[in-house]
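thought: fold this chain, then report.
action: predict
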Amino acid sequence: MKTEVRFLLAIGLMLVVLIGTNLLFPPDAPVEAPVADSAAARVESPSDTPAAPPELPVVAEPIPEPVDRVDSILAAAEAPEELVPVEGPLYRFTFSSRGARLVAAEMLHFKALNREGLVDLLPEGAGAYLGQRLLVGSDTVDMSRVPFRADPGAGLTLSEGEGPRVLRFSYQHPSRPFGMELEYEFRPDGYQIVVRGRVTGVERPLLITDMGEGLAYAEADSVGEARAMAYVGNHARDGIRSTPLSRGQPGVEEGPLRWAAFRSKFFVLALLAGETEAGTTDEQLLGGLILTPGTLEQRIRVGATQAVGADGAFAYRVFLGPQEYARLSSLGQDMEEVNPYGWRFFRPIIRPFVSIITWILVFFHTQLNLGYGWVLVLFGVLMRGLLWPLNQKAMRAQLKNMAVQPMIQEMQSKYKDSPEKLQKEMMRLYKEEGFNPLAGCLPLLLPWPILIALFFVFQNTIELRGVSFGWLPDLSAPDPLYILPVFLGVSMFLMQWVSMRAVEQQNPQMKMMLWIMPIMMVFIFFKLASGLNLYYAVSNIATIPQQIWINNERKKMKVQSAGALVKKG
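observation:
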């Protein structure tokens, strides 16, 4: 948030300069579906065959870690743990036969920026993820430590263009009619895992899936990444709510939920209700979240609850991968809003610009075979070219306003003792001459949504993560040498200096802004993404030739006005 506040301050200062100089110195942002069960309802009122469940209440006291009181149901024999790999073009997942849990989730296309090697989404020391527990009446069956049998035992290797593949885990008690089956379905072209399961030998248990303690740190800026860490839930009635990971408290968060997720700055782990978006029913929604103290510092462990069907079947989806807008959108249920851009009231305005700008940058990168650094340079120049007509319109409005300045000054002198008469004459002049003091500002305000959108593109877009350019190791991170922020300040000074050359009488305020504004911009931008600094500096430099041309037009206008006054005299 500190970065966003810093950016808003920058926007405010630039608007003050833009509008203030034009005014003071004219050119001289469902109904809750019932669920079959919920965590708090089953914990507080256990029942083997529950009736229609009550709404999940808010639990004030923390829910303790469930204690296994039905060990007799599980096999006593110990079995060695086996690791089962699943590798595709995008990922390398590793499962354990102990509890059919996930123990590693490596992203093959993304390197960790805080250490050697690939990004592994599971933090060290947090234990395995996706373990299962079953609430059976008042008892808890912890399946996360049960020896499952994997099929195929050697794991899976998926190739590009191949269809979905399934990894099966099964457990059957050697002497009792109790068992559990799990299927993990993978596709080579996506990060989504479809999970299907069935429980036999117990009646209508409540399933609790362990989502773990969040995601591992993978960025060079651990402070900024820690601020982005959060768990998020999409409530069927109340919508999306995000909680910073460090502020999570033990307890229960009520459902029903369409999905629950952990997010970092660039990656996400999500549990989504149902096998597909279209096939999700109200009964398949997640019941709620059970929050318990984590083993890592300032972390909370999250378990998502889900009702098991009368036939013992259940299904959900897991997404482990980057926050790519297209992939998250394809999951449905507003999953793309897991890490939204900016503040709620800004999102409807900013989102279209973010999508278009991201598409343009990726298009230039892939079609022109340019690195993203050069793409930003090209984009900055092209944006100035596209905005040329707006600047021209603003310039013409300023020249027109400049033409009536002598008449305004004459009126102010003539009617200085009669404010009412002065106001009437000014209104008449505005109407006759089409004078509008803001006409030179409004066209220049239109590019600001683009600049704001660029801020969020450079801060959160996975395509720019870890991309180097010149001395910059990461375009989504600040310039480590602060060269670009200083260059940005110099470019802003040059742009203001060229603009002020057309003003014959410069007052002290204008001269002060010439020096203070660039210094303030350096201070504000030095911690913003280097990609944003690069774009804005290039954009400023590309504006200088047009500013020189505008100044020449102003000078011509002054000469013509002076000639007209001579003839009139």
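thought: worth noting. The longest helix spans residues 530-568.
final: tokens above.
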